[in-house]
Every structure is written in structure tokens, then in C-alpha cells.
Amino acid sequence: MLGPKGAEHRTRHPPGELVFEGRNTYSFWSPLDREFLLAMVKLGHYKKYEFIDPFWATFFFAQLDYTNEQAYLTNASADANALILSQHENSALSVALAVGNITNTGLAYAEYIITNPPALKPTPSIFGNLNFAWTPVASKYLLESTNNLANHGWTGQVIPPRPVGGDYAANFKTMNGIAFFRLHLP
What we know:
alpha+beta, 2 domains, about 190 residues
């Protein structure tokens, strides 16, 4: 077919659904997947839904690394490359299920649907520092500390902004004294 000024144009058709499914399998989407799941869980609590059912649960167990997959993709059509990605995802899923692997997306969803109060998790730190992390579902909880449990005087702590797809986290310098920390729902 001839186009403007005699240039030849090929008729293109839109890529099939498999192309979009193939692109979804990459692990670099995990932070956004976790944010989406968090939003859905929070909406479920807010609206008092009895049940939410995330689809594409295969990504709870296996996701593909973008860099590693590039060696397998060809200059073929987008649909052909999507088929390769789909086959690799299915193979990775089979292995993950057999050995019990769970992705960061799956771990996050499991954390979000726990109905117990959130817990402070100590995280590795260098000497002289104390690091905590806790679930992003606990957005209404305050981080508080005290040096004396007997006086019931808890002080609110500043919480840094939470990174996309990550937990809340806080870092404190230790002063060779005793300190107690808690998450408190006002």
C-alpha cells in the first residue's frame, strides 16, 4: 500500500492479549503489584467486603527477571515473544510450587490479609542503631516509644515516608539505655 509521498506502509494489527500477559510477568512490577494489592485490601476493609480475590495469583509464586529473559526473546513478532515469556512463566511457576517459593508480591499479600494487629519487626542494623519495619496496612497506627513502662508516658515518633511497594520503617540511634517501642492505634 502506498502512503504519503509514495512511501510504502504495511498494515499493522494490534498485538494480542498474550503480549500484555507476557509483559506482566516481569519482577520489576512487584512494587506496583504490592501497592495495588494494598489498595485493594484497604478498600475491602473500608467497604467491609467479605471477600476479595486477586487474579494473576501465579505472580505470588513466580516472576521473571527482565534482564535474564532478554537472551531468549527474538526479533520475532510481539505475539511470538509473548508466547516465550508465557512458557517461561509457567515453567518458573511449576518449579516455585514444587519447592515452595513465594515472591515478594506473594509475601506482601499474605502480610496484608493477616487479621492480627501489626507487629514491629526488628531489621538488621549497624552498631548503635535500632531499625524497625512494619506492614503498610497499619497506616493508622502510630509508632511510640518510652524509657519507662511504669509511668505510661509514650512519645510519638516521626515516621519517614514509605517507599512504593515497601514497608514502613524507622531508624533510631541507641543511647546505651533502655527504650520500648510499640505500634498504637489511637
